[in-house]
Write a structure and sequence with these properties.
Elements: E1 15-29, E2 32-41, E3 51-57, H1 65-72, E4 92-101, E5 107-115
Antiparallel strand pairs: 1-2, 1-4, 2-3, 4-5
Amino acid sequence: MAKLTMVENETIPTGEYPTQITDLIEEEGKFGQQVKFTLEIIGDGDYTGKNLLAWAALSPSMKGKLAKWAAACGIQLEPGIEFDTDELIGKRVMAVVLVKTKDDGSEFNKVEELKAPKRRPVPAPAGRPAATHSEEGEALDAPGPVDKEDPFADQ
């Protein structure tokens, strides 16, 4: 028999959190085939290491949630071009997280949306404007160090 140590279902506050997609599983849902995302909160905040779950219909629609979430990961889909959802694993995104209440009064987190990562401005040398780094970690408008506290800096 399996032995378990039970834990409380701890919710995190409503907000936007830097995450990395660590797993994708195709499964049957109430409304058909879907992809279950496992997102790990990254960075150095209070919830670093916590996993969140999110679902998107396995739909070929360019207007569907899966296509929007792929775009947030920097993957631009095109009609007629095959897309492998495994390309999303390892990508970093901002997760918009809400606290919802079930009929029994218990609370849970819902990932409402995935957004492209926000870049932190990097302090610039005196007399130069601050640079923002590209998705490849390169300064867009001035040389300078990568902000080590930016969870997306090395992406």
